[in-house]
Amino acid sequence: MTTGFFNGIAPAKYVGDGEGTEFDYRHYNPDEMVMGKRMEDHLRFAVAYWHSFAWEGGDPFGGATFERPWHPQDNQSRAKLKADVAFEMFDIIGQPYYCWHDADVRPEGDTFAQSLRNFEEIIDYFGEKMSSRNIKLLWGTANMFSHRRWMSGASTNPDPDVFAYSAATVKTCMDATQKLGGENYVLWGGREGYETLLNTDMGRELDHMGRFLNMVVEYKHKIGFKGAILVEPKPQEPSKHQYDYDAATCYGFLQKYGLENEVKLNLEQGHAILAGHSFEHEIATAAALGVFGSIDMNRNDYQSGWDTDQFPNNVPEVALAYYHILKAGGFTTGGTNFDAKLRRQSLDAADLIASHTGAMDICARGLKAAAAMIEDGGLENALQERYSGWDDPAAKAMLESDFDSIFDKVNAGEIAPAPRSGKQERLENIVNRFV
Asked: Is 232 among the annotated ligand-binding positions?
């Protein structure tokens, strides 16, 4: 018995160049081997419960545009209907994972205890549905930014009662993630920042945030959670300045509080752009620092100055992201979560299916292009050639010497730099052969 929300849309299938519906896959073939691994196992797609099912279509300038059968999301029967529809969509598109926040899946109660009872009941309902399907939880997380109690932050809040409420909330979400076999737990500090330094003790807030994250890690080990703890960087919005600004900022934070070997990063394309970076920059930075974990795949509208969370549709951008992911060894516990939402005018249930299957095809094309670039070797060969001087024993010895000895060689004329081309345009031409 189905809800009928998707009006009998058949499960999407891989058709390649053959005939199919608009929802079928032209590029995403889960069983296709790419660099010795199944495509599904490379990409590890996940659906974001919040944007796909909890979001009502509002934006900063207007209210809800979606009219779903589970709106308003204020009781358990509607929460279960929402879950029924969600798992029907999972059956249609066939992705291996999904993700949630606590507030996405259950209605808010009058007390913490009531909210927890609602949450636990829905988690059990999810577990029943997962038991009969080949779908897993990529990660769970807590929404500690929407409700007014979080207006001044969660772990960084000046009120210790809010810190305590935050700790209790994350404990319940970690328990639920563990119960459902989740492979990661994510923390995104949407309000962990400040609006003005006039009322902010930044040092105290950072210390509290560091202690909170240490508590998360301590609890992970206490309950035997085998997944990764992930922090998601974002520079701004909703806070004017968020403490988890970008990958490099997060790594500095992790080092300061002794967490660089315990916590990795969940990187989002849209957040990278807001920080003034490319997505591949953030991935390469995290990989170089040893903290790459997972990604939220979306895009921003480059004519808007805010986080629009649109589905990916740019193969060259996606290809460069996966190029650096593959260079880093690929995902382990992480994956490709579509933290993306329909446009406010895309009202139909069919739009929800098409957005995901289209995005999965885009990512599949990007992955295959990235693999082809790696197998071609042109980019890597050029990179090795550019740094080949450092393979010389004299160059290696220089790194172990000091300024005085280096000065003597340069001053004696033994070393005279001769600038060489960076060949950027030629390297861009190599990329364009594949995308």
From this structure: yes
